[in-house]
Write a structure and sequence with these properties.
The chain is an alpha/beta fold. The chain folds into two domains: about 260 residues, FAD/NAD(P)-binding domain (3-Layer(bba) Sandwich); about 160 residues. The chain has 13 helices and 21 strands.
């Protein structure tokens, strides 16, 4: 199906429309919610701030890709100790267009905790039915051996020699050939991100998608939302081309854990809960690089093909994350000649990532000079989890024959043997000494049975409103512990079913 999506400036200078439901955002939550609402027979319009980009424009060049597909050129960040870079997608398909397609189901232990602490009613069997419905449109399967590539093979070997629990990652990429360019947009349409799966399915069901529309506020009266309004943008997103207003009987926000709370606050919809914008969870992550005497050729195979969950119960998850040279070089703890010497051996490098299931205080407080104001303070406990993950990857690399291991930990950047690495855990590494990244912001509009514990009710409806729902990763009341894409999609389906029923 050839997808044609109108651009904001084509609708200007003034645009208005009416629908049964309007959805803000076209990522994992918004695209799934739009599809479900359209299938239920509703007239639904989905608006997206970013452009619609097809594979013909996925050049594989880093600078071009970040400008086309990422918000703020990939440099959104949470300020704190330390600051955390949060690369986010901004195009039709949202962050699913620039992630690795990793698709883990929600851990059952989390569902039990959410039920006990927040009153959630979703059971494993109920969510399993949602996952099965999703997988009919977006098949998911573990990465096959022939696509693991040298990077994952190094980790498989090391984990096997250590006797640690590990395995191939489940992904939504049934025709993947392993070009290792997921974060720059899949050039072969092999990864079934939302722009290739649920967006076309929603269009077939009658949904309308509009690109380059920036929602400024939800219009409401007496607890009832009746429209969304904002700016029509030019094709390149750099200038305002007009204004729009879309009136609807139901409004569904799926702008993500950073921008959904900002939009609610900007609209004066803090609601009856004190939890809006609080409880940001990031899964703070760090990269570890191994230098080998033999070629690894990590760019051959899947970018994120293997995981190690030996320490998952401790809140530590390890996943493959091989990246292009332009992204790897800045992550190395070297400068000048030393950095150049390491990068000359690029084919001998293996890269793996460690992320923590965090409980650090963070939140989204609004905007400053038009930019999201995000705060996050890594606790010592979460810093210890990140360090434990870096140590574990180092152990795996040395077990697989690495000659050196490089980390993003200040004062502990290089290890030449296992004995030196073992001493890492004897230190209490200050949080400020860690170089961190996050691809998984969630938790800022938590779902709970009452306003004392969350910001939306168990249907996903904002407390104090009649017809305003949230359908993205901001719903999760605690850190998820796994990549959130599939859980976001399952919860978005559940929210959309409630909207359609009402």
């Amino acid at each position: 199906m050839t997808v044609s999506i109108p651009v904001g400036e084509e609708l200007g200078p003034s645009f208005s429309a009416e629908a049964d439901a309007v959805v803000v955002g076209s990522g994992a939550g918004g695209a799934v919610a739009t599809h479900a609402l359209a299938e239920a027979g509703l007239k639904v319009i989905c608006v997206e701030e970013g452009p619609h980009v097809s594979r013909e424009r996925f050049s594989g060049r880093q600078l071009e890709a970040t400008r086309q597909l990422y918000r703020l050129d990939g440099m959104t960040a949470a300020l704190g100790t330390p600051s955390v870079v949060i690369p986010m997608g901004c195009s039709i398909g949202g962050t699913t267009t620039i992630n690795a397609g990793t698709s883990f189901r929600t851990p059952e232990r989390l569902l039990r905790r959410w039920g006990e602490d927040f009153g959630h009613t979703a059971t494993p069997d109920e969510l399993a039915r949602e996952f099965e419905a999703i997988e009919r449109l977006m098949p998911i399967a573990p990465v096959p051996d022939h696509l693991l590539g040298g990077n994952s093979e190094v980790v498989r070997l090391g984990a096997s020699r250590l006797g640690w629990s590990a395995g191939p990652i489940p992904r939504n990429a049934p025709t993947c050939r392993g070009c290792c360019r997921c974060v720059l947009g899949c050039p072969e349409d092999a990864k079934l991100s939302m722009n290739l799966s649920f967006v076309p399915a929603g269009l077939r069901a009658g949904a309308i998608y509009l690109s380059r529309l920036r929602v400024r506020q939800v219009l409401h009266r007496a607890g009832t939302a009746h429209a969304v309004a904002g700016d029509l943008l030019s094709a390149d997103g750099r200038r305002r081309a007009g204004r729009f207003e879309i009136r609807a009987r139901a409004v569904v926000l799926a702008a993500g854990a950073i921008f959904t709370p900002i939009l609610l606050r900007r609209s004066g919809l803090q609601g009856a809960s004190r939890h809006l914008g609080r409880h940001l969870r990031l899964h703070p992550a760090t990269r570890v690089v191994g230098l080998f005497d033999r070629p690894v050729r990590g760019w051959e195979g899947v970018l994120q093909g293997y995981f190690v969950d030996e320490f998952a119960r401790e809140g530590v998850k390890l996943e493959g994350v091989f990246v292009p040279p332009g992204l790897l070089a800045p992550a190395l703890p070297f400068f000048g000649v030393e950095s150049a010497e390491v990068m000359r051996r690029y084919e001998n490098l293996a890269v793996f990532g460690a992320m923590a299931e965090d409980d650090s205080p963070g939140g989204v407080d609004g905007e400053l000079w038009g930019l999201p104001r995000i705060r996050y303070r890594l606790t010592q406990a979460d810093a210890n989890r990140v360090v434990k993950g870096a140590w574990a990857i180092g152990r795996i690399f040395f077990a697989a024959g690495a000659r050196a291991v490089y980390t993003g930990i200040h004062g502990h950047e290089r290890f030449d043997d296992v004995d030196a690495l073992e001493r890492l855990l004897a230190h209490s590494i200050p949080p400020a000494w860690l170089e961190l990244l996050s691809m998984h912001p969630h938790g800022t509009v938590p779902m709970a049975a009452d306003p004392g514990r969350g910001a939306v009710d168990l249907e996903g409806r904002v407390f104090g409103t009649q017809n305003l729902w949230v359908a993205d990763g901001s719903l999760f009341p605690t850190a998820l512990g796994v990549n959130p894409q599939l859980t976001i999609m399952a919860y978005a389906r559940r929210v959309a079913q409630q909207v359609a029923a009402r």
